């Protein structure tokens, strides 16, 4: 028996990890309803269109990945007026929705009063969401993403209500404080009272790495919709497995032979779209996560990790892909 009705599965924004190439791959594999970009950092200026397009090249594809999945732009900053100006520019570029980041724990970002540090100031959250909301047409939903708090949870409800009252139409909660960083576990049950109090949809996020985690997260948080980050990068088939479970079926984990062509695809896209010397780094980053979830892949990944030269790395990837495909 599936314990839940269908809910949306959102791909989490992850700076330096989920760029447009990763979004392209993960949404081709399937099961994802919506993606959010890496954050666009707003300080004290109106950013040029090319900067918007660097973070979100899907702008030129009507804000969709090549597979057709909608992409939402995420803004990060503490200056309400500049956030509003830049939101307006995104709206003119056709943004289907805009998200605001109140969860980033990075020191450099927090030092400049962006991200999670704002969770100490509900009135600033309100001002930012309000300004962005008022700057763009009503047809463009403005959403926000936050953590349970900065040091503790004392302002959790106040922050969530400030965001709602300012006009946000959805709130994603990563179920940890800033101080908790990424230390497991995520506290899904702490989202539940917020969901109860808010009229807007609340989306649960944090540490969903398996089908079982997904169902446990929904049960504990009471949320219909779940955002998944690292779990989807490490297991690109997870959203499809979740979907199968929601209709009472079981979908087996992919075999190495199914993963192999994506490895080649991912390398080639990175080679085509970024300086080729950076491509091996991106592939290794992904492989490391993938191997964490697929022990059979580890020996192959070890073979690749040590190669630094981009050309030789590509040759090795090709050889590994051939072997994996032939081994089936
Ligand atoms: C490498 C990395 C980069 C991240 N970048 C962002 C970001 O740009 N914007 C944001 O709102 N959250 C960001 N996050 C937080 C994730 O969106 C998510 O809330 C967190 O990883 C917990 O979800 P998960 O356990 O499913 O990965 C980032 C997390 C990681 C690990």
What is the topological layout?
Elements: E1 9-11, H1 20-29, E2 34-41, H2 49-55, E3 71-76, H3 80-92, E4 98-102, H4 107-111, H5 122-135, E5 142-149, H6 156-165, E6 170-177, H7 192-197, E7 202-205, H8 211-221, E8 226-228, H9 230-234, H10 238-246, H11 256-273, H12 279-293, H13 298-305, H14 310-326
Parallel strand pairs: 1-2, 1-8, 2-3, 3-4, 4-5, 5-6, 6-7, 7-8
Helix pairs in contact: 3-5, 5-6, 11-12, 11-14, 12-13
Bound molecules: flavin mononucleotide (FMN).
Give an overview of the whole structure.
The structure is a single chain. The protein is built from 14 helices and 8 strands. The protein has 328 residues and is of the alpha/beta class. It has 2 domains: 238 residues, Aldolase class I (TIM Barrel, Alpha-Beta Barrel), CATH 3.20.20; 71 residues. An 8-stranded parallel barrel has the order 1-2-3-4-5-6-7-8, surrounded by 5 helices. Helix 11 runs antiparallel to helix 12, helix 11 runs antiparallel to helix 14 and helix 12 packs antiparallel against helix 13. It is globular. Flavin mononucleotide (FMN) binds next to strand 2 and helix 9.
């Amino acid at each position: 028996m599936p314990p839940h009705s269908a809910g949306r599965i959102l791909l989490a924004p992850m700076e330096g990890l989920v760029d447009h190439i990763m979004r392209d791959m993960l949404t081709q594999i399937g099961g994802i309803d919506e993606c959010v970009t890496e954050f666009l950092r707003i300080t004290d200026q109106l950013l040029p269109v090319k900067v918007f397009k660097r973070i979100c090249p899907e702008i030129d594809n009507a804000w969709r990945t090549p597979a057709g999945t909608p992409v939402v732009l995420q803004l990060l900053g503490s200056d309400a007026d500049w956030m509003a100006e830049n939101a307006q520019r995104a709206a003119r570029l056709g943004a289907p929705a805009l998200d605001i980041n109140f969860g980033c724990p990075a020191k450099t970002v927090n030092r400049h009063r962006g991200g999670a540090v704002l969770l100490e100031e509900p009135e600033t959250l309100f001002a930012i969401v309000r300004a962005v909301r008022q700057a763009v047409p009503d047809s463009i939903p403005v959403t926000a993403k936050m953590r349970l708090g900065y040091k503790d949870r004392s302002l959790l409800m106040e922050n969530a209500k400030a965001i709602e009252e300012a006009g946000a139409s959805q709130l994603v909660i990563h179920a940890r404080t800033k101080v908790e960083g990424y230390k497991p576990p995520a506290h899904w049950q702490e989202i539940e009272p917020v969901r109860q109090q808010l009229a807007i949809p609340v989306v649960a996020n944090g540490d969903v790495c398996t089908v079982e985690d997904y169902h446990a997260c929904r049960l504990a948080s009471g949320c219909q919709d779940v955002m998944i980050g690292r779990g989807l990068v490490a297991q690109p088939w997870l959203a499809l497995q979740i979907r199968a479970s929601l209709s009472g079926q079981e979908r087996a984990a992919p075999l190495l032979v199914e993963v192999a062509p994506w490895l080649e695809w991912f390398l080639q896209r990175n080679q085509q779209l970024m300086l080729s010397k950076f491509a091996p780094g991106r592939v290794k980053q992904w492989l490391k996560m993938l191997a964490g979830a697929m022990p059979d892949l580890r020996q192959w990944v070890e073979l690749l990790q040590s190669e630094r030269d981009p050309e030789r790395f590509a040759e090795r990837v090709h050889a590994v892909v051939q072997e994996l495909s032939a081994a089936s």
